[in-house]
Amino acid sequence: MILLKLAEWFVYKLLANSCYKAAMEVKNSRIFFKNSSSFRSSHQIPIHPNISKCKNSRKSETVVCDIQSTLLRSESFFPYFMLIAFEGGGILRALFLLLSSPLLFVLDFEAKLRVMVFISFCGMKIKDVECVGRAVLPKFYLENLNVRVYELMKSAGERMVFTSVPRVMVEGFLKDYLSVDCVKGTELHCFGNYFSGFVSSSGILSKHRALMEVVGEKKPDIGIGNSSFHDHLFISLCKEAYVVSKEDATTTSSILPREKYPKPLIFHDGRLAFLPTPLATLAMFMWLPIGIPLAIFRILIGICLPYKVAVLLGKLSGIRLRVKGTDPPRSENDKGVLYVCTHRTLLDPVFLSTSLGKPLTAVTYSLSKMSEILAPIKTVRLTRSRQKDGEAMQRLLSEGDLVVCPEGTTCREPYLLRFSSLFAELADEIVPVAMNTNVSMFYGTTASGLKCLDPIFFLMNPRPCYTVEILGKLPKELTCAGGKSSHEVANYIQRQLGAALGFECTNLTRRDKYLMLAGNEGVVEDHNSTINTSN
């Protein structure tokens, strides 16, 4: 009986929506009737010129547009709801949203939006959604910007965005990255510090009504929309109206190059390394039953087997390890060699040790208990006391070779953070190592998630890639023993590694990263000492 009732309700809704939409189209088409003698052309929606016809120099004018299918090239907002569901709510919520995707195809726009809002937001903490909006979504928005619309918005004196999607999903990005003056979107209902999963009493935002409420009788100068009927109503309220066609959004020339981003994309968070469209998300869930055992297998061979066997089996399992350069000969003194690496994941020292075929000791400010237990090499925690850390590293160097990542935290993008100068004071035998990674499904780092899962997520990728480039040993005249200050040595090595990788050097630190992504300084109290939560 329940199934029959659901089927009856579904057919009723489908027929009712179809009849309602047909009736509204007939009714609204009368708006464009000029006279009774011009019936042949009166039923057509007025055609606005393409966005390519609009000039960019609009410094004193107001530009209004929508973010969906206009400012962004993608027509569907499903991937961004999936990011909210997966990164903020977890894998089960993401699976539920994926299972609802067949139903979304047959629902009208408003019903589809309400379903995605309910699944993605119901029971979510407001601060968790804000964190995803600040740390995860901007990367995907930037990669999906329509360059033509963005350039026009950038040249405008005042920028306004009206959208039917929830305001909380887009407002942070629009104001922080695009300097939009006014953002109007659908408001969501909350109870306490949680989202209820329902739209507020004001309902789904109607763009043309919201525009009239904001500007009144004063018409904005330029309106940009897509070819849909509702967008024609929206942009017809402006002095000039332009349309972004589907063909414009799919051409490669509409993609905004990284060098033209309004702000450099240096930090971002989240586990997913791909835009989670329905098909891509389905592929991910189909891969998980294979990926999880595969990651465990890769970890076990790294722990239990000799270097050469581990490398062979790792390659057979899909890991790509590319090694450039050779390990320079060790000097005759008793101290070990200090390897200075760029920091991409927690596994940097492990892959360096495997590439060199010899054991190394890694020093880190923070390491989860799981990572410490599973690490196939010796790891030593630092205390963040410069004197104590210096003494500990000197002792370790007297025992053997040491690897350090002076950035203090990981960075996913082609940038290098500021190098700590402590390492330069401790050793004259310094070997810079440029390390880089490439993943297709999951990132192996996080600022707000469980760090103990970082290696597992990295090794769950079908074909994770690690590039290890061993540069020449630093000449003695460029070390502190040659008269250089520790800061000069650190800055020189940073520039050398940046040039080897093609990365840009910055003065940003771990503190900057965590303030942006997690809203804290990346420091937690552990017993009686303060340790860094980076990596």
Distance between the termini: 54 Å
Radius of gyration: 28 Å
- What does the main sheet amount to? 7 strands, mixed
Proportion of residues in β-strands: 15-25%
Shape type? elongated
What would the average pLDDT be, to the nearest integer?
86
**Spans where pLDDT lies below 50 across 5 or more residues:** 26-45, 524-535
- Class by SSE composition: alpha/beta
Question: In percent, how helical is the residue content?
Answer: 40-55%
Strand order of the largest sheet: 8-15-14-9-12-10-11
* Annotation, overall tally of beta strands: 18
Number of H/I helices: 22
How many independent structural domains?
2
Q: What does this protein look like?
A:
It holds the Pfam family HAD_RAM2_N. GO terms for molecular function: glycerol-3-phosphate 2-O-acyltransferase activity; phosphatase activity. This is Phospholipid/glycerol acyltransferase domain-containing protein. It is a multi-pass membrane protein. It is found in: Membrane. It is built from 22 helices and 18 strands. By secondary structure, the chain is of the alpha/beta class. It folds into two domains: 210 residues, Rossmann fold, CATH 3.40.50; 241 residues, no CATH class. Strand 17 and strand 18 form a beta hairpin. Helix 4 packs antiparallel against helix 5, helix 4 runs parallel beside helix 7 and helix 15 runs antiparallel to helix 16. The two termini are 54 Å apart.
What's the structural blueprint in terms of helices and strands?
Layout: H1 2-29, H2 39-42, E1 62-65, H3 67-71, H4 78-89, H5 91-99, H6 101-106, H7 109-121, H8 126-135, H9 137-143, H10 147-155, E2 158-166, H11 167-177, E3 182-186, E4 188-191, E5 194-199, H12 207-215, E6 222-225, H13 229-235, E7 240-243, H14 246-250, H15 278-304, H16 307-316, E8 320-324, E9 338-341, H17 348-356, E10 361-364, H18 369-374, E11 378-381, H19 386-399, E12 402-404, E13 415-416, E14 430-438, H20 454-459, E15 465-470, H21 486-501, E16 504-505, H22 510-517, E17 523-526, E18 529-532
Parallel strand pairs: 1-2, 1-6, 2-3, 6-7, 8-15, 9-12, 9-14, 10-11, 10-12, 13-16
Antiparallel strand pairs: 4-5, 14-15, 17-18
